[in-house]
User: What shape does this take?
Amino acid sequence: MKQSAKIITTSLLLVTAINAKAITLSFDPDSTEVQVGDQLSLDILYDLVGEKTVGGAFSVKFDDNAFDFMSVEFAADLPDDPAFRVKPDAVDSNAFNLGFGNFNEITGSGIAATVTFKANKEGNFSFDLGAPLAGGDPFQNVSSINYSSAQVQVNANVVPLPGAVWLLLSGFAGLGVLKKKRA
Assistant: This one.
């Protein structure tokens, strides 16, 4: 009898583990390059295949010495109730919460929002999605949540020399050649 109970329990745990699918929140693109002074837009994707949720919150973390937060726009076709969209009024540090939800539950996958930043500093930087900061409710009724990151390379602005400078330099070179021939 005890052996049968162990087998049934083990089987149920295996079936649950095989069928459990995690919610995934990710950035698109997950790797990109921009110039200092450029705006950077990252889509936040959600994948709820095999899961249903009434919603919840998550955090976006970034280097506030390298980027200025500009805006958040939720996708027009996000299958949620706009009254449950949570976006920051202002960002005073290197992280903020976002969230969305619907009491009728959300399934499927798509774009949740687009976050936009301005690049201020040269270097390699990471944008991270994670658990909500204090005061935010995590996603409800899910087995687990996978958060991802995006890597951003910010390059210094290289100012190209205008064509007139090249023409001027070639003129000086020509004058140098003429001076050599006369000498």
Q: What stands out?
A: Helices lie at 2-19, 163-182. Residues 4-20 have pLDDT under 50 and may be disordered. The first helix runs from residue 2 to 19.
